[in-house]
Write a structure and sequence with these properties.
Layout: H1 2-32, H2 47-55, H3 60-84, H4 90-129, H5 132-138, H6 143-182, H7 186-196, H8 199-225, H9 231-260
Helix pairs in contact: 1-6, 1-8, 2-6, 3-4, 3-6, 4-6, 4-7, 4-8, 4-9, 6-8, 8-9
């Protein structure tokens, strides 16, 4: 019976989490679109720009560096095997599809989940513990507008942009391996790259980045707002945010693999 009770509790907790995420998503989408014409909307000048700097531009270097290193490793290992078969030219197509469809969006999302997601959760959780969120409600300020919306909008723009940067870093790593190890001319590399990539692939890559950004922002905010307790609860919420975000990203990425292929 205890196993059944625990399973039921876990199922209800998951249902509650998903319902709350849907609520936050609907509120964020509304206030980002039709909400601009709503008289209840409160203008918070500078909040969006501040979150773009904190969550987006500050992560440029680490996203570029890590994606470049992953792309370099993957390209070199692939080049070694392809050279054994005399098919080194296919490295360009393989690395282009892999980077744009998987490596770029996935690595970017995982980095942001550990960096930006944890930052969002810790900041909001601290506000909850210090009862600052209650103070916002007393002043008539909707927490979603003040806390969720700027972060949601910032991640909606920053994640696709960082995904594109990660794609370029991965392609650059593949280019270095192609010209140094395989000896492909630059013109041939560019020609193969143009044939391998298309507008559809680019759109799919950016769309995955957008969805991953939404997942990170919504999960981070929900974990921060649902904190109960003291300072130790902030640390637990931050840990849960990173674990849940990365798990959700990988699950959604698996779903995208079935849908896109």
């Amino acid at each position: 019976m205890k196993v059944i009770e625990r399973f039921g509790e876990a199922a209800y907790a998951l249902y509650y989490e998903l319902r709350y995420l849907v609520y936050l998503l609907s509120e964020s989408v509304y206030w980002s679109t039709l909400g601009y014409f709503d008289k209840m909307r409160l203008p918070f000048k500078g909040a969006f720009s501040l979150q773009m700097i904190r969550l987006g531009s500050s992560a440029v270097i680490i996203v570029f560096l890590l994606t470049f290193l992953v792309g370099l490793t993957l390209s070199f290992q692939s080049a070694v095997q392809l050279e054994l078969l005399g098919a080194g030219i296919y490295l360009v197509r393989g690395i282009a599809i892999t980077v744009f469809m998987e490596i770029g969006p996935l690595i970017t999302a995982i980095i942001l989940a550990g960096r930006s997601g944890s930052s969002i959760t810790a900041e909001i959780a601290s506000m909850v513990v210090q009862e600052e969120v209650k103070a916002l409600r007393v002043m008539g300020i909707h927490p979603v507008q003040y806390l969720v919306l700027p972060r949601f909008q910032a991640m909606s723009i920053a994640t696709p942009m960082l995904t594109m940067l990660a794609n370029l870093a991965g392609i650059f790593a593949g280019y270095l391996v192609a010209i140094i190890y395989i000896g492909l001319p630059t013109a041939l590399f560019v020609s193969e790259l143009r044939e391998a990539l298309s507008v559809t692939i680019l759109a799919k890559s950016l769309f995955k980045g957008l969805i991953f950004g939404w997942l990170i922002a919504l999960i981070a905010v929900s974990k921060g707002l649902s904190v109960h307790g003291g300072a130790d609860a902030v640390g637990k919420a931050t840990t849960k945010c990173v674990v849940f975000s990365i798990t959700a990203i990988i699950l959604v990425d698996a779903v995208f693999s079935f849908l896109f292929y």
